[in-house]
Amino acid sequence: MLAARRKEKVSSLAQDIEAAGGDALAIDMDVTSEASVIAAYDAVAAADFGSIDTIIANAGVSAPGRSTEVTVEALRAVFDTNLLGVYLTAREGARRMLAAGVRESRRGRIVLIGSMAADVSLQGEAAYCASKAGVAHLGRNLAREWVRQGINVNVVQPGFIATEMAADWFASESGKTQIAGFHRRSLQPIGSLDEPVTYLCSDAALHTTGAVFTIDDGQSL
């Protein structure tokens, strides 16, 4: 089940999964709205895909600029999406897992996608860094709360990847200068997260919970 505020962004991915022989469904979900999050989980149940056992919370936005100039509206958008949205997504998923008996199966997996920005200071990104630091600590706290409930919660902190959110910046001369300053002088490949996230969602991760993995191609060194 692929959920996003802009459903069209995940609809093509669902089609690719189906074309490859899998089952997938794209649904609407605004992570900043509790009602929307609940409705999305209801849609999962109605689609009869079986019980939920794995959740990846990956929504994120940025509001770059000097802290003296970023508007309150922009700040709220960052914290509502990056922190509140992660909280609501994980919480509603955990409710469904517990109701389905995950305590006995111990197969509940929640992966929160944070950022290496949680551990470093980035010029013009005070709100983003603060929100991602919140995600890291939220992950540890949820892991502690559900440690006896059959749900493992872990956080993955990637570095800069050529996503839609950052593409324009890294295409600029200033962005290219920043890339040249990375130790490996390149952006992190998005595929570098595939194996770590797959592991955290698998049975092999039974004894991995409350961990924060920084996987940033050495950008924060």
From TrEMBL:
Keyword Oxidoreductase listed: yes
Gene Ontology MF annotations: oxidoreductase activity, acting on the CH-OH group of donors, NAD or NADP as acceptor; quinone binding
Cited CDD domains: SDR_c
Keywords: Oxidoreductase
GO terms of biological process kind: fatty acid biosynthetic process
Origin: domain of life: Bacteria
Keyword Oxidoreductase: yes
Family: Belongs to the short-chain dehydrogenases/reductases (SDR) family.
Record-given protein name: Short-chain dehydrogenase
